[in-house]
Amino acid sequence: MSAPHDPVQRADFDQVMVPNYAPAAFIPVRGAGSRVWDQAGRELIDFAGGIAVNVLGHAHPALVGALTEQANKLWHVSNVFTNEPALRLAHKLVDATFADRAFFCNSGAEANEAAFKLARRVAHDRFGPEKHEIIATVNSFHGRTLFTVSVGGQPKYSDGFGPKITGISHVPYNDLEALKAQISDKTCAVVIEPIQGESGVVPADVAYLQGARELCDKHNALLIFDEVQTGVGRTGELFAYQHYGVTPDILSSAKSLGGGFPIGAMLTTNELAKHLTVGTHGTTYGGNPLACAVANAVLDVVNTPEVLAGVKAKHQQFKTRLEQIGEKYGLFTQVRGVGLLIGCVLSEAWKGKAKDVFNAAEKEGLMVLQAGPDVVRFAPSLVVEEADIKEGLDRFERAAAKLTQA
């Protein structure tokens, strides 16, 4: 395939990019469905989904159509003006969830930033400045801005950047007693991922989320669900809170919402939204027509009984085969997760070696993910085809066989 400009290769990354990533040795250049091709024309099956983003795979016709149609109309006007795609998207999200109001931004970190700022503003307005404390969970991940990384429960990401934002504490995940011991009338919000993504695909217990809801009600604190990774069909419901039957006060969404185009959203109620009055929060690009046009198309495809039921069926296929592979090769002890967010917990002998599994899979033409050093994560397209599931898991088995024989 002829390159439109001077050729670039993986070595260029090490010369011109800030070294905060360590990308794989190949460069993907084209995708279709759940298949990707690199510069050399090698084909890979994509079970990584751009880290739970490519909810409809690559170059899905509905998304390509929505983007190109909008690209010929209007790209950006800022929030000095509103636009039709943003209003349509807000209506869709409000109609499909507990929320009455939507705020659009560009990423999950920004959606969480807005959620945390809203929670503090509500508490400030209603109860005064003392009520500003936020409780999050150990090993949680909420983004990389200074506020969101301070709320996230992984010090390795927040240490070394000067003073952290204060008034934030962390309690063990899925531990209701610990939350009960920490929460007080100074707490403005409790933030929970319904499934901890980055730290190992750990689903919450229903009783834990129900208990958190009750504690928040008792202490006039807001319950925030970070659904950046779990939202937009990933669990087999449009949002994970619906899977659990526990309703938050504020919900953050991103990743799958744009199917690969950057967009984030914070969803909340009328009562809470009114505290973000004109000028209290904003974003230049948030809710731009291009992103919203794509997100509308994503929701039109994903929020259907067929696709959501398909996610649950595909979960079983993945789980059954992955458990067989794990047992056969002694590679992992547990397959956990909900819908098409799946984590394989490495066995004692392979602890800390998720990167080795990632590399072995890549050699067999399969893209997977890690979730910490001890868990191999799968977050494929929600519409991944049967043939791709079978072939991808065959490739994964070949990788497991080679890895464990070596």
From TrEMBL:
Example GO molecular function: transaminase activity
Subcellular location: Cytoplasm
Pfam families noted in UniProt: Aminotran_3
Coiled-coil annotated spans: none
Catalytic activity: N(2)-acetyl-L-ornithine + 2-oxoglutarate = N-acetyl-L-glutamate 5-semialdehyde + L-glutamate
Cofactor note: Binds 1 pyridoxal phosphate per subunit.
Main location: cytoplasm
Binding site for pyridoxal 5'-phosphate: 108-109, 141, 226-229, 284
Record EC number: 2.6.1.11
Cofactor: pyridoxal 5'-phosphate
Gene3D superfamilies (UniProt xref): Aspartate Aminotransferase, domain 1, Type I PLP-dependent aspartate aminotransferase-like (Major domain)
InterPro entries for this protein: Ac/SucOrn_transaminase_bac, AcOrn/SuccOrn_fam, Aminotrans_3, Aminotrans_3_PPA_site, Class-III_PLP-dep_AT, PyrdxlP-dep_Trfase, PyrdxlP-dep_Trfase_major, PyrdxlP-dep_Trfase_small
Further information: May also have succinyldiaminopimelate aminotransferase activity, thus carrying out the corresponding step in lysine biosynthesis.
Family: Belongs to the class-III pyridoxal-phosphate-dependent aminotransferase family. ArgD subfamily.
Assembly behavior: Homodimer.
Name listed for the protein in its UniProt record: Acetylornithine aminotransferase
Lineage, highest ranks first: Bacteria, Pseudomonadati, Pseudomonadota, Gammaproteobacteria, Pseudomonadales
